[in-house]
Amino acid sequence: MTLGLINANPIVHAKKERVARCEDPHCDDAVDPLDIYDFVRDIRDPEHPYSLEQLSVLSEESITVDDKLGRILITFTPTIQHCSMATVIGLCLRVKLQECFPPHYKVDIKVSPGSHADEEAVNKQLNDKERVAAALENPNLRQLVDECLYSNEL
Amino acid sequence: MDFDDEGSNFELKEIQTLSGHTDRVWSLAWNPATGTDDAQPVIASCSGDKTVRIWERSALTRSWDCKAVLEETHTRTVRSCTWSPSGKLLATASFDATTAIWENVGGDFQCVSTLEGHENEVKSVSWNASESLLATCSRDKTVWIWEVMPGNEFECASVLQGHTQDVKMIKWHPTMDILFSCSYDNTIKVWAEDDTGDWHCIQTIGESSNGHSSTVWAISFNAGGDKMVTCSDDLTLKVWEADIEGMRSGNNQVLWKHLSTLSGYHDRTIFSVHWSREGIIASGAADDAIRFFVESKDSVVDGPSYRLLLKKEKAHDMDVNVVQWSPGQENRVMASASDDGTIKIWELATSSN
């Protein structure tokens, strides 16, 4: 782990205004991208006291859902090409989604095309279930993930 | 056995669901010395809950019960388990970087040895046919070969380097002391001992030899030991064959050649594959389904091809991590385990029209 921040001067954006969600019980039960986005937009970046939304790492367009098949695809954009926090962000997304969605949803997490120098290698790691499980058993890594997910600083 | 009989419909009947693990079940193994007239079938399973469970079917009720929970030994996920060929010892591989050896002492399973050495998670463990050697593999990219000594002592005989990434599984050939490994580096490697007792990689099966294009998760041999099937994150199963007579005569130059690729049947990672003694290939995948393939007699033009015999959708509620045919007397009995925390016992049955 390097001591200095990977990206010391990230570009911070304003949070998108939240649209009031439908409270009507007859609302469509299907999961749509905004449902998922609401769960992940406030995840804190591992290095900066800002959310993934504020840093434009994630947007509503990052998410595609096939509700019938039960598949979710999230692509995220690390703030810089050589971001070594990419795998941590990917882990945070996976843990958050595991907590919020029924287990039968299959989730694929990738960096958006062209956004990272080791795109293929990062994507492979993020979608290897065994590697993810082992990483989350590492107490230091788990702590970092928990801080990103449960931080109350926003 | 001819599976092309048009009058036969196959179905996968669920016999029982075994619950108890409190996290995903990664793997299971049938005790090879059980499933006979004198010994009721026994299964060992291992889990993310850090325990190993021993299950036995009651002779009286024909129902499976959990006989033992092996806990407080591994400190992290137990990733795989395998019985020695005699059924007397159980080896368990863990993310805690150790491999534990257990012995059944009067109904009580005791850890009689702990193998240390790998730098990080141990993924798989395998006994050779004569029970003289044990092999383990790890995310540290190495494969270790251990000699089994008297008094449950294990001595490291060799540390095999060559894979460039995480080694997912190792498997000894069913009859010969030739070791096979498959990896996150997308290759399969074959290892054998030379005249001076040194172990070398005698073949690497990569993409250029019609190999897989992503992580290879598992290897399984047919009954004759002249064919093997591998499964991968690239969504295919690949069948390989070798000249068995050549191998038996000690020729280490014998190469495994690609025979067939089964593609278009799976749309998510295939974690497990197991070849039954009758020639039925079972696969377990991340789409929660179990599939069965057999050799098709239709085309013998470029060599045998394989066809889908049956697909069991929603075999489990989550990813299927392992499928294993029973070695016992009963035919076509199989066990599977899943991220949903359960183990299921199945029977592949026919209903002729």
Task: Walk me through the structure.
- The complex is a heterodimer of chains A (154) and B (353).
- In chain A, 33% of the residues lie in helices and 10% in strands.
- Chain A contains 5 helices and 3 strands, in the order H-E-E-H-E-H-H-H.
- In chain A, helix 2 crosses helix 5.
- Chain B is mainly β and 353 residues long.
- A 4-stranded antiparallel sheet of chain B has the order 1-28-27-26, with no helix packed on it. A 4-stranded antiparallel sheet of chain B has the order 2-3-4-5, with no helix packed on it.
- The longest helix of chain B has 5 residues.
- The model of chain B has no long low-confidence stretch (mean pLDDT 95).
- At the A-B interface, helix 4 of A face loops of B.
The end-to-end span of chain B amounts to: 18 Å
| Rg over alpha carbons of chain B | 19 Å
Question: Which secondary-structure class do the elements of chain B indicate?
Answer: mainly beta
> Whole-number average pLDDT of chain B?
95
Oligomer: heterodimer
Q: Trace the largest sheet of chain A across and list its strands.
A: 1-2-3
Largest sheet of chain B: 4 strands, antiparallel
Strand content of chain A: 5-15%
Tell me what portion of residues of chain B adopts beta-strand conformation.
Answer: over 45%
Low-confidence segments of chain B, ≥5 residues, pLDDT <50? none
Largest interface: A-B, 11 and 26 residues
Low-confidence stretches of chain A: 22-27
Domain MIP18 family-like (chain A): 35-97
Family (chain A): Belongs to the MIP18 family.
Protein name (chain A): MIP18 family-like domain-containing protein
InterPro entries (chain A): FSCA_dom_sf (IPR034904), MIP18 (IPR039796), MIP18-like (IPR002744)
Can you give keywords for this protein?
A: 154 residues; alpha+beta; 10% strand; B: 4-stranded antiparallel β-sheet; 28 strands; WD repeat (chain B)
